[in-house]
Amino acid sequence: MQLMANGLAAGAGYALVAIGFTTIYGVARFFHMAHGAVLVWAAYSTLALTWAGAPIAVAAIGGIVTAVALGVLLDQLVYRPMRSHGLGSWALFVASLGLY
Fold it and tell me: Closest by alpha carbon to 35, among 73, 67, 76?
């Protein structure tokens, strides 16, 4: 029973990451490789908040806020200037590899 619960939890995590990749590709039309790094930042900020004594719900909200802020920051500082210069999706892909 525990093995099935662990499998469902891992599968749910993989599904969330896949939905994130699909959503970003559908909107931005390039494969955002730094998405994984943003997820890692969110997870570590959640962990740091729980170690600081925050309840798990507050820590989860902090992780979400971290992911959103980092995503917006990457878009504003890296991807938007590249798009305004008319660079294509391959250049954005290479930039996302560099950010990763």
Answer: 67
Instruction: Encode pLDDT of 12-28 as tens digits.
Output: 989 988 898 898 888 88
Question: pTM of this prediction?
Answer: 0.77
- One-letter amino acid at 74 equals L
At 24, list the tokens.
């970003």
SS (H, E, C) the chain: CHHHHHHHHHHHHHHHHHHHHHHHHHHHCCCCCCHHHHHHHHHHHHHHHHHCCCCHHHHHHHHHHHHHHHHHHHHHHHHHHHHHCCCCHHHHHHHHHHHC
